[in-house]
Specification:
single chain, Rossmann fold, 7-stranded mixed β-sheet, two-stranded antiparallel sheet, metal-binding, 5-formyltetrahydrofolate cyclo-ligase, FTHF_cligase
Length: 193
């Protein structure tokens, strides 16, 4: 099986497992994530953290985002501009959020665009060494590549439930590995060479 087909199979399998979690279990797991990581994610006041509002059965990291904001983080959310590009717009008090494509919600075009220092990355599946499978459109891979081409190296923290872990993700040259992953069981850093 090709890496692309294997990724698609793993994506479908793990998203089905995530979808099968009762809503109450997802809420409890999301709150546990905030408890595990809100105080240990290293950030300085003013650091920009990109989060996301949950779609479908994703973890709800809004409680974590509030706690990071309380520690001095500036928050932003991804906004889909076209079939290939996302940007990150500042989420500030009093800023209206709107539908931003692909079922997502984020600040409107009047909100400033920011370059995240820390990215909380949604995903379909991940493995024990930090490889991830996204939703298949490549938005985050391209956004990370664009940030790195500008000399900006955001820390990448995958957000998932335990049931989304797989034995191995077939990594391809264009894939971007995570620096850490946060699940309801805790926060794990990955060693990089």
């Amino acid at each position: 099986m090709s890496p692309k087909n294997l990724k698609a199979a793993l994506r479908n399998e793990r998203l089905a497992m995530r979808d099968a979690m009762p809503a109450e279990a997802r809420i409890e797991a999301s709150l546990a994530m905030a408890d595990h990581a809100a105080d240990i994610i290293a950030l300085d006041p003013g650091h920009v953290v990109s989060g996301f509002w949950p779609i479908r059965s994703e973890a709800d990291i809004r409680p974590l985002m509030v706690r990071l904001k309380d520690r001095g983080a500036r928050l932003c959310l991804p906004v889909i501009l076209d079939k290939r590009t996302i940007v990150f717009r500042e989420l500030a008090d009093g800023v209206a959020v709107v539908s931003t494509g692909f079922g997502t919600t984020g600040p409107g075009p009047e909100a400033p665009q920011l370059d995240p220092d820390i990215m909380l990355v949604p995903l379909s599946a991940f493995d024990a060494v930090g490889h991830r499978i996204g939703y298949g459109a490549g938005y985050y891979d391209r956004a990370i590549d664009r940030l790195r081409s500008k000399g900006h190296m955001p820390r990448l923290i995958g957000i998932a439930f335990d049931c989304q872990e797989v034995a191995s993700v077939p990594a391809e040259p264009h894939d971007v590995a995570l620096d850490a992953v946060l699940t309801e069981s805790g926060f794990r850093h990955f060693e990089r060479d």
